[in-house]
Amino acid sequence: MTERALAESIDALLPQTQCTKCGYAGCMPYARAIAAGEADINRCPPGGAAGVRKLAALLARSAKPLDPACGAEQRRTLAYIDETSCIGCTLCIQACPVDAIVGAAKLMHTVIVELCTGCDLCVPPCPVDCIDMLPLPGAQAPWTRGMADAARARFQFRRLRLERERNERARRLARKAQEKSGQPMPDAKKAVILAAIERAKARMAGVAARNTDNLPPRVQAGIAVVGARRAAAKKR
């Protein structure tokens, strides 16, 4: 089996929460790292002990306890937004890896419960602390392979959509710069496309800091502002 095929087989066993708690930018980057021998099989808290056993069986390895540095196995949770406190900042929408939050700027946001993977990436950016991760009611069905496959598809679609939007934005800026300068820009379109390809390769290959460090720059900036406000409030 090739390394690429092995990574796909590993990815098929991961829960597809895209929470980045493993230290990678999503489930597939983690799967690639395992296939390449760069990561261990016990770094996925959402998959839990059962997930480790599945990976061990696939790779003919011995199962081992979850790495505590990545977090602990826990009951499945879902994000809930206190809609009376939501200010419509859109930071949670930008942070959600599977487009499970809907809303618009300065308008109330809400979580589509059926799509939420429980990754908790939406919690840190919220400037008014109106998002809670609540345990799934015991009577509700657990996370299934079908749900994981659907979450993977949404994650991939979102990445393609964001990449398309970035490319379109770059092309608009290039056209505006050309119109402003009045000078021809040879190979400008080619340069934009090549830059986009390099960014995509870097994201797919790179290791990301777990959880909040893998958020878009605008979201990280929002977190920094909120952190500064909270630090200032504590000093008062």
Helix content: 40-55%
Span between N and C termini?
Answer: 61 Å
Arithmetic mean pLDDT: 85
Our Rg estimate from Cα atoms comes to 20 Å
User: How many helical elements?
Assistant: 7
Q: What's the arrangement of strands in the largest beta sheet?
A: 1-4
* Structural class based on helices, strands and sheet pairing: mainly alpha
Biggest beta-sheet profile: 2 strands, antiparallel
Give, in order, the helices and strands: HHHEHEEEHHH
Oligomer: single chain
Number of DSSP strand runs: 4
State the low-pLDDT regions, or none: none
| Beta-strand residue percentage | 5-15%
Mass-distribution shape: globular
Features:
two-stranded antiparallel ribbon, two-stranded antiparallel sheet, 4 strands, 236 residues, 7 helices, globular, 46% helix, mainly alpha
Summarize this structure briefly.
The protein has 7 helices and 4 strands.
